[in-house]
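Components:
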Amino acid sequence: MKRTLIIIVDLLIMGLILFFIVQYANTKMRESNERVVEDFEKMTITAEQIITNYLEDEQHLCDIWANYINRSAEAGSPMTGEEAISFIRKAKISSSIYGHLLFLDKTSQSGISTHASSKDANDYSVSYRNINIFDNIDEISREDGKISLTRAYTNPQNGVQSIAFLNYVKVLDESDGQLSEAILMRVEPVSMLEDKLVFLKGEYENVEISLINKEGEYLVHGKSLKNSNFFEYYKSYNEADIVDYNEMTVKVTSETGTMTMLNSKGEECVISYTPLKSMNTWFLLAYIPAGELKAANTVVDWLLLGMVTLGLLSLLTFNYLILMLYNKKLAEAAEAANQANEAKSHFLSTMSHDIRTPMNAILGLNEMVLRDSHEDEIVAYSESIRTAGKTLMGIINDILDFSKIEAGKMDIIDVDYSFVSMLNDLVNMVQGKAQDKGLSFDLEVDRDIPVILHGDEIRIKQIITNILSNAVKYTKEGSITFKAGFEKMEEASDSVKLIISVKDTGIGIKPEDMDRLFVAFERIDENKNRNIEGTGLGMSIAQSFLRMMGSSIEVESQYGKGSTFSFELIQGVKDWSPIGNYEETFKRAVSERKRYRESFTAPDARLLVVDDTEVNLSVFKNLLKRTKLQIDTATSGNEGIALFKQNKYDVIFLDHMMPDKDGIETLKDMEKIQDSPSKNAPIVCLTANAISGMREMYINAGFDDYITKPIDPERLEVLLFEYLPKDKIAPASGDGDEEDYYIPDFVWKIGSLDVNAGIIHCGSKKSYMDTLKTYFDSGQKNAEEIEKYWNEKDIKNTTVKIHALKSTSRVIGAMELGEFAARLEKAGEEGDVTLLETEIGNLLTMYRKLLTEMELLGRTDGEEAGSDKPLISEQDMKKSYETISELCEAFDFDGVAETVKSLEKYRFPEDEAAKFETIKKAVDNFDYDLIPEIISG
Amino acid sequence: MNIKTVRMAKRMLGLTSAIAMVFCFTSCGQKAEESAEFKPLLSTETSCQIKVAGNYSNFESLESEFERFYEYYPNVSLNYVNLDDYNNTITSALMSDEAPDIYVTATWMLEDDKMAPVFENAEVLSDPSLNINLDCLRKGTCWTLENGDVVMLPIFTRTYGMLVNMDLFEMNGLEVPKNYNELVDVCDKLKAAGYEVPIMGANGMTVAGMYYAFAFPYFCDYVIKNPESVEALNSMEKSSGEMMRPALEKIKAFVDAGYLNPGLCSEQIEDDYNAVIMRFFEGDVPIMLGSGDMVSGTQKRESKSEAFLANSFKYKFFIVPTGDDGGYFLDSVNLFFSVNKNSQNLDMTNEFIRFLMREEELGNMAAIKRLTTPTNDFSFDEVYSSLEGFPEDKTFSYQETGLNDAVNKEFRAAAYNVANGIMTVDEAISGYGSLWE
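Structure:
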């Protein structure tokens, strides 16, 4: 997961937690708000009760006055207006409360008061003419206890805002002596009522109690409610449509409830309303800023919320830092793993070369043993070596492939290939093994499979080989059936679906083991199959290859009865010609191959082999000995190039891995040379790199073909048959090789010589004897030179000479001397003068002792000289001398050596024989500068 | 005490009102810039209650000022009380235990003996120690007593003129006329454009009637230019009726030309306030004559006129250009505030008055009420923007003319009678002194 994504997810979770907290807090707050509003409403109701009580009390006092006056009238002694007012004046306690008696029959709405006018101390009259409070005079109740109250108005006598409680009284009209009805008013300043509301401030600091009538006009109002009318005020500052407005007015004037609205400052405020009980004309409003109710309500703990947020953020930061730390460590670990993997790859590729190179020697030499040995026991051992070697090579190849797949470096390289050819290889490989185990190998190949397909031939072959090998390995008796079929593709006209299956009657696979079948290094039924060799990589590799090609192996198996492995693979088609009857084609091909293999010689053809390892060269030459091919060898790229310039070769073999100039560089240089007689010679790469995909690499590099080491002699001969000019190929001569070549007894008797090893190294007995003689001839001079360089303290050249001694000694089988020389060579390379000092004498002693033991060789040579060789003509001899002189001048010492060697076939006249021997020795001792002198005499 | 005050008031009005005005001119209208920023002089923590008494049932513009004042003095509680039968109860109220701290006064109260206590209780607001800025007031709005004391401060003023339907003018490619000839020209063009009666208003004798707005300021100017006529006019001498001739002739000319149609106005405009405004909002009246009260009423009636809601238009107030070089700005104070010198919270009351007497606050109140501000800053309400920078020599108050209320009434009656064809101009002039009955 990317870092950003982790952070986003973290933030999301954080957001969700905070969201939950806020939601929860909001819910709680809402509940709390509702509670607060309920409490506020309760307070309103309490206020209403207090006010109602007050009003009822005041009305009651008004009613007492009225009752007293009325009872007087009822008792037949009605009071006059003056008497009534006089009574009230006495009855009332507070001076701020006025009693007004208004005579109804007077249109002026005037009467008398308990108090004199503030303007005139003698004026007790009162007039309501200009004060409109009696519009609904009929609504004044005559019942006791029923509140009859005016709106707030200005007491005309004192200019004080007042309210009046009303009742009717009957008083005596002095003018006519009749009882008439009058209105008795208990007039109180509004401030008295306001004072009753002050007590409420304790609980809510900013609460304002207002009283309004049905029209919304205030009886009393606090400072926040503006206008003279609450409803007008509401309309001025709240955008409400007519329906909402009407609903509001109805609610406020009919029920108990709470609403929110905006005040004149646009701030939210809460208004709780309730009608005054026992009056349907007045309504109580309790106003409070919404902020105060909210402030009293502190359910949401913002500190807690802040701390949680902070905590989560810290956690996120901490986690992020830890994540970064782990990422860094992981990156380091990944880097280390990569390095380890690279090291592994490096190790594997090194191993490829390093194991394959000695394997080349082992298998190559073993092949020679197989050919040359007539002792059954040796042959049997040798066969075992070959089998084990091939198995080992298979394992190495598997490991290499597997490592390459693992590293993702395995590529699928599609090429055109002959399906029949592939089948040949597969069948050849398996048929023998199957026969060896006594299994019948059945082929069912669709005759219509196109002859040339396009795909990764090598991988497909590997896959089928793996399956077939397994089938053979795990089948004790019965048969193996190989089926190859195909289907045409509807969607792609230039492709076919190859259907391959291999059915065996082997041990089968348990269902529970199926899953492990394709797991690397897993071996199923290990106990039972302990004796079956393999790494457990084969099927895993095959499956991996198929996956890369978009397919997979299907397995059907019955434990104990056998298995069928199959797969389908889409392949391009290059030639739709059907392969026909494969069995027949195969048999014909096999017989053809046998024929040419058995009869193949090419004495006129000439090969150049370049390899830095002499033994490899020796092996190569000997493997082809029976073909009588002329083989030139070179131990370095430059040496090879020199020969390439000069001679006409039919095929050139170049080792890939060489010091200084490797095979590819050598090839490039050769390609640049325009005037070489070998210009068009096919060049084949010799390589120990058996890693898959190498073929393409070499072909791309410019090679015509390649052959892997250890060299498969059959493959080598097939390859040569393909590349050599047909006119130079002749049937096998059938005459004996050097099987009967005689090695003198004294040679066998030299204790420090391992003759057999020498023969193997040299490829044949004759070659061995030749090599041995060369070794002997140059021996004394060589020993002297080592001595000379050592005495001059020329460590470098001493070491070079000892190195040569090591190689040559090993080739002839003088193993002890070779090892001794190797030790000193190492000492020389390391500058270990002390060791050289003490041991070099011993080395020379041992060397010279060997040479002494070989002295008979000189004689043998002498005895043999000129025996049955043709006498060289005077003319040829002169011509040869000239050629040698020219070559010496051109510093073409290889050419000199070649020429000298070719002259060895001839017998020289006696007077020239010594001269020729001198030339030969000079060549052997690399004293090329002496040769012209010798020739000129 | 009572008697003395009444006498003083009488003297002031009857004899020295012109002088009083001169005092006022010298003391007001000079240092307007001082009112810019209000700086509290008392502790802003002060807590008290202040009561304002008045005759408006509703005083939203004042309540708005309460709120603004609370920003400086949050613990002060201001309350407006509408007294029933104000003219009768205010005197008692001032004597009561619950006397208001601030109360509304009017110029007529100066003339009325019964109202004497109103001024007996009034604080002298021109006292320099109070720091009340009287300089922001416009010439002609500031009233002083004979001794130079200022006991009443103007809050709103009104003038007389015409509402012009600006969109209609613009649509017809017309400019608002600046002098009499242009006015006549515009009326012709409007008639030609199909507006049968270009000028409308309430056909009545009130100050809100159309003839008062049309010709009375013109008449006043004529009187000011002929001060010797004042005494005769005030004493209802028949011969002085001749002073009305120029104004009456202009009315006659406009009626004759069909620019004014009294009959049609009576038919379509039932009263001199609501009906005038609602008719104007119909949108087809180019010019509507009336008082500042008419303008004040427009604000709340825009939303009540379906015609205006459907087709709103821009309108502005102008002085009627009845003179050859323009019209006359007759300035009259609509409402004064006085301070009860016995107030228990006199300092804070004076502080509130000091706060209020600033162009910004007066302008704000006037804008809410849509009356004209007593200051020279008309920027608060675009409808009055034409009054900005009105020539001072054509601005005067009624008091400045020296005419009494009777002259006013005679003129209104004369104008109505001439316009409605009840009298000829000559008959009206000769009937001067007995026209109002």
